[in-house]
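Title: Prediction job returns without error message
Component: structure pipeline
Severity: low
Priority: P3
Assignee: unassigned

Description:
Job completed but the reporter wants confirmation the result is attached to the right record. Sequence as submitted:
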Amino acid sequence: MTWFCQEQNALILEIAVQPRASRNEVAGVRGERLKLRITAPPVDGKANGEIIRFLAGEFRVPKSHLTILSGERGRNKRIRVRAPRVFPAWLSSLSNASRKNSAPPVSEC
């Protein structure tokens, strides 16, 4: 398993979230998950909302195109990005780095 896969017209991301960070950013890969730092605290869904806003901006899609499939109350999340308009530079650079250390990512979920 890798930290992302493709499902029809959607991208599924496996994410490890660090809330209360100094800024919103992708911070590499931790194990088999994309590490995402978010400024919001994990209180009353604030961190989840910030994750959705951040990723919507990265993939240039409306927030309604993102769905938290699992992990809504935890740090490890599985998120679907429906019909991404662009693929951020970090996606290809991190996926290439992941391939060097493990099996190539699965194209389908």
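Comment from assignee: result matches the submitted record. Residues 101-106 have pLDDT under 50 and may be disordered.
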